Amino acid sequence: MVRRHGGGDRPEWAALRDRIGHNVLEYGWHEAAGAYSVAYGDEEMDASSLWIGLSGLLPDDDPRFLATVLKIEADLRSGPVVYRYHWDDGLPGREGGFHVCTAWLVEAYLRTGRRSDAEELFRQMVDTAGPTGLLPEQYDPLAERGLGNHPQAYSHLGLIRCALLLDSRVTAAA
Could you tell me the pTM of the whole model? Predict the structure, then answer.
């Protein structure tokens, strides 16, 4: 990124990136969870664990990324949304699933060859938009209503990214 924007080479940054990546790959896997979890030694799942593959740290076909996608899907997906996590964070009220987390799972589905699942989850995400067509930060699948900040830029950025990825993969396949 630094080179791309005219900042020159920063070999110490590349070395640090590589050390961090190696550390995450070595210590982030939780054997009992069968996936990369929220923190080293913690079995709880967090949708941000999808970034182990979305960031390119693991290839799309790596069994550990595939297992993490399946674990997030099983533990955190509820219909049209993906919850960030399910533990008590001490905040009042009930959270919904975060649209940006749903977008991460759509992308993970695409990367792991599950195009029809990606398309279906994307359609469900679009269907959660209210009458304005705008997405809030969260969606409660039980009450079938939006929660949190509305409209939410991150939700729309995730939606747009998924739309472009779905379109580019259709175009590339044609």
Answer: 0.90
